């Protein structure tokens, strides 16, 4: 028979409290809003799942969700291979290593709203360096506030500039943890540099890449600040991603119920995709 | 088949790691690189494998100049001291990896891998991953890869150093058989003199990035050309002392002196003698006639052998004798050395007489 030791609960208690305050209680208030209609003076009416039903059937939500997946897909498709390529090209030892690492880390150190403001000014057609160059030197009609394609291209370029470094640094950490002996063994086997990448570097980077993809997925899926500063969701609704739309509903229209319902669905999608991806990537290791 | 090194050297940032070395390793027997840690064994192997750049010299494998060839094109195998297998591949894929890279047909790969696996008793483990194997099995996998590849040269860099005692003995016995008749030139690095003797073949003694002597193992053991060579090839360390020679009499310290007729042609003066621990015994025998006195410092009993470290004027000496001897640490104890087993070296370390005893 097992001895029960109830004292163990005391050790779990602090964590429970912490999780309660930073996750459970805020989350439950959102759940509370999501099933009610809210008026001033703290008057609430029970609405059940009405907001969820309306949202899931709304074209506006579908459009924002579509934009969000397209954006995240493009971001991952560019940043992951580019990050790996840069990490492979970085020196493995010598005086240039710290220089490269600091240069790589720089974009990530800049606050998100500053990044947005920087790129906003950078892209201005009349005085921005990029805008002026595109319009005057190259003669391309480039204006983020008029042209949806220009807005998308600029936001994607901004995100690649801002966050590819994260993939680079994680991949690089994976690469430098590979002992020289593996490279030597591969050389002795007569392996080409593609085989070395495919059979030694990629498998060794798998774990850090899983983390990199997860982080980049979650971050780009939840992108808000930079887009808010750069385009505010426009022109039209062309860059109204889920988070932008959510803030419009919650603070612009002050529809707290639908906004709360949307937050929960948004959260559920992020969680579900992350969980699916992580489970698939780590399935082999568990065997 | 041969590997011929002509004057090869390695210099890193102004420091010479391997001094110009010329040796010819041949097939048909083991070529042992014997030297302490840091003597340059691994460096020399890496030069031969093309993993490190050479400062000077050329390397020929079977008459073909491979100096400018990359490692990939040299057709060699290398087994490390620590076990290097690709962690995410099965044992089968690990053994097959060089064959796959070479673009060999699947059926042939299957045959070669199974043959190598049978020789190394890995057949039941072919579908496991390296981390599911014991250290001995992992190292056997690395050896199987070298065998399956059928390369021109096989470099074994202290392959048994990380295995436990029993496995080491077992594999050491098997190793010469594994590579016998395969035609490859086998170079085996070790820091244990005993291992060099057991593997036989030829031995290159290495010290401080230098091959100090090279030749058939037994001959190198009996006739070291320099005091350094004698020191490298002795475990426990060879006993060294200063002696004074006058006519045919050698005098060591105050008391010990003996007649060394075969050394009488050498000029009188100061020399070093070196004598292996098992030629110094705690009892007089017909051969061990010269009495020495020393204070016993440390004693060790290993199975049927007793060893004692005792203080001599120049350095501590070691005696190694069969049987169990009741030493008292701290007591003065007589020891007897075999004068015919003494090696006599000039002050510059070159052999003057002795050897072959």
Summarize the structure.
The complex is a heterodimer of chains A (287) and B (357). Chain A is mostly helical.
CATH topology of the largest domain in chain B: Rossmann fold
Secondary structure class of chain A reads mainly alpha
CATH-derived architecture of the largest domain in chain B: 3-Layer(aba) Sandwich
Q: Order of strands across the biggest sheet of chain B?
A: 6-7-8-3-9-10
Please give a structural write-up.
The complex is a heterodimer of chains A (287) and B (357). In chain A, 75% of the residues lie in helices and 3% in strands. In chain A, helix 4 packs antiparallel against helix 7, helix 9 packs antiparallel against helix 12 and helix 11 packs antiparallel against helix 12. Chain A is an all-alpha fold and 287 residues long. The radius of gyration of chain A is 24 Å and the shape is flat. Chain A has a single domain, classed as Orthogonal Bundle (MetI-like fold), CATH 1.10.3720. Chain A is built from twelve helices and two strands; from the N terminus they run H-E-E-H-H-H-H-H-H-H-H-H-H-H. Chain A starts with 7 loop residues before the first helix and ends with a helix. Chain B is an alpha+beta fold and 357 residues long. Chain B folds into two domains: 226 residues, Rossmann fold (3-Layer(aba) Sandwich); 115 residues, Nucleic acid-binding proteins (OB fold (Dihydrolipoamide Acetyltransferase, E2P)), CATH 2.40.50.140. Chain B has nine helices and 21 strands. In chain B, the strands form four sheets. Chain B has a six-stranded mixed β-sheet, with helices on both faces. A six-stranded antiparallel β-sheet of chain B has the order 13-12-11-14-20-21, with no helix packed on it. In chain B, a hairpin with a 2-residue loop joins strand 11 and strand 12. The model of chain B has no long low-confidence stretch (mean pLDDT 86). Chains A and B meet through helix 8 and helix 9 of A and helix 2, strand 6 and helix 3 of B.
